[in-house]
Amino acid sequence: MQRAMSIRLNPYVLAITMVAMATFVTYWLLPIFKAETHVVFDAIVVVVAWYGGMKAGLLTVALSTFINSIFILSIDSPQVPISSDGGERWHLLSSTFSALLVVFLTSKLHAARQRVEQLGIRQMQEKESQLHMAGQAAQMGIWDWDMVSGAITWSVEHAAIFGLVLDEFDGKYRTFESCIHPDDLAGLDRAVDRAIQRRMIYQHEYRVVWGDGSIHWVEGRGQALYDATGRPIRMSGIALNIDRRKEAELALQRYEHIFATTPDLIALVDPTYTYQMVNQAYLRRFQKRPGEIIGYPIAEIVGKEVFETECKPRLDRALAGERVQFDLWYDFPIAKQRYLSITYTPYRETDRSIAGVMVSIRDITNLQQAETELQQREEHLRQILQQMPVMLDAFDADGNIICWNQECERITGFSAEEVVGNPSIMELFYPGAAYRQQMMAAWAERGNDYRNWEWDVTCKDGTICTISWSNLSDRFPVPGWAAWGIGVDVTERNQNIDALSSLNADLESQLADCRARLAKQSQQHEPPE
């Protein structure tokens, strides 16, 4: 920008020049002024004091008084009668005093004007500096387009907005045009033309391509000025980097898409239990349009009884700052009875005050049915395990028995209530400390993968039962069971085996005796040689 140059006259030169001019005028009009020669000089005192300040004004008073004294006291002309009674001298003195007073007051006004001008300049500079800093902080540039000459003035912030080094941005329109994304250039031109033709505010968003290939968003705003004939002569405005706003808008669009398309039912209710917002899933489930839910109380939509017994108490807790989750069965207009998982979350403003409750409802009917079916199967399996004709026990990680089926109870005589969770039960099963320690050490060495390992268990009535245990925990782990196994009572089998062994030994002994007697008889009946 070019600054206009101004020439300021030297105030002392002005004072001398003005006094000379006043002398000439006074002398020329002396017949008219007669004794009032000070009139012209008083006028130039005001002008010089206003322009040059007190010193220049005092010089003007001194020169004017000197010239006036010559006119009044020294000129002897028949055209100008001079009184000799001294009145004119007092008139000269009073005129001089008045001039000094004028100089004093005018110089004060002059000084005040200068202070005001300096203050205005300083404030203007401060405002320009603040505007520049604000433009840099907001990534905003100011432009002015002289539509008559075609000249465009850009602020320095445009270089950063267009991704250019300051020295690379020459302010020419073709440089600006080269930064615009090719797909947005035509739309930008149309937006400017439309704003000019319709005399409306220009506002348009477009993309710019930086030197590194990255794409950034800019919003342009402006307004045209027109002459008396309606012809546009100037347009001024701003260019603003809106990358952050676009990112926020994109994120908001994503959130809105998620909010609209999620299968969960989502709503926002205020502290008066009134709907403020609902998503499409909520509308579909209740067979309502937005105008039939938004602005209505919850009780009118879900039913007064459900609201009073299920919703309101939990909403009050959420409005107090608590996150509330609960499940319930509910009959919808469609899909009939469904099992719902409902969550109430406090909705807070930026100042952390609670402005409402965000309601999230998920249909978990299928999950609930699957869980119910699984529970039924687990119960059925538990009954099978409890009633199967083999012993079944299980241990937790601390070595406590947590499962003891009916066959275990029948064979040992110990009930599940006496065994499960009893930390001393192993001492009852194996009262012999040496035997118990030997068996536990052997178990720790074998681990949880063995078959047909026989333990002698002491039953409740004191009898000894031999149980053949098989541990399948490592091959078939069961959640919650650190170890589990099945056992078979082999006491009678072992007794039978012992009896058969004893009988076999007796038979072998008897057979040996028979063989010995036969051999002896054979020797007795043999003929002598």
TrEMBL record:
SMART domains: PAS
EC number assigned by the record: 2.7.13.3
Transmembrane segments: 12-29
Keywords, sorted A to Z: Coiled coil, Kinase, Membrane, Phosphoprotein, Transferase, Transmembrane, Transmembrane helix
Molecular function GO terms recorded: protein histidine kinase activity
Coiled coil: 497-524
GO terms under biological process: regulation of DNA-templated transcription
Pfam families tied to this protein: PAS, PAS_3, PAS_4
InterPro entries given in the database record: KdpD_sf, PAS, PAS-assoc_C, PAS-like_dom_sf, PAS_4, PAS_fold, PAS_fold_3, Sensor_kinase/Photoreceptor
EC top class named in words: transferase
Segments forming domain PAC: 202-254, 322-376
Domain PAS residue range list: 127-199, 377-431
Reactions catalysed: ATP + protein L-histidine = ADP + protein N-phospho-L-histidine
Protein known as: histidine kinase
Taxonomic lineage: Bacteria, Bacillati, Cyanobacteriota, Cyanophyceae, Gomontiellales
